[in-house]
Write a structure and sequence with these properties.
three-stranded parallel sheet, alpha/beta
Length: 114
């Protein structure tokens, strides 16, 4: 899936096949123009390096879990489901969690362009 997204990008993308050390990951994220992802440690590390981010939130509450950087550099795109944020992180099949799956791609792209 990552390769398919990279193929559609106007600018070349660097795909990192292996998990780097935290120090290496921080250096890579600091060089990025934008980091987009779920509410994860690497995304919070990107905030710490000052790299602009787009955070996808589903069951977790962005008011509680960040991002904690300037709002003009760090955008939140959350699900529109009425049950969110439910805090349910123990979904039986994480890849099929409805919260993040309902976030429209157009909203993510718009947040990244801002």
């Amino acid at each position: 899936m990552v390769a398919a997204v990279a193929e559609l990008m106007e600018e070349p993308a660097e795909i990192i096949p292996d998990t780097p050390s935290m120090k290496c990951l921080g250096a890579l994220l600091a060089r990025a123009d934008l980091v987009v992802g779920g509410d994860t440690g690497p995304l919070h590390l990107a905030v710490a390096t000052g790299t602009p981010t787009v955070h996808l939130f589903g069951p977790a509450d962005p008011a509680r879990f960040g991002p904690w950087g300037p709002p003009d550099r760090h955008r939140v795109v959350a699900t529109d489901l009425p049950c969110a944020p439910c805090g349910r992180l123990d979904w039986p099949d994480p890849a099929d969690h409805p919260c993040v799956r309902t976030i429209a791609l157009a909203r993510v792209v718009a947040a990244g362009r801002r």
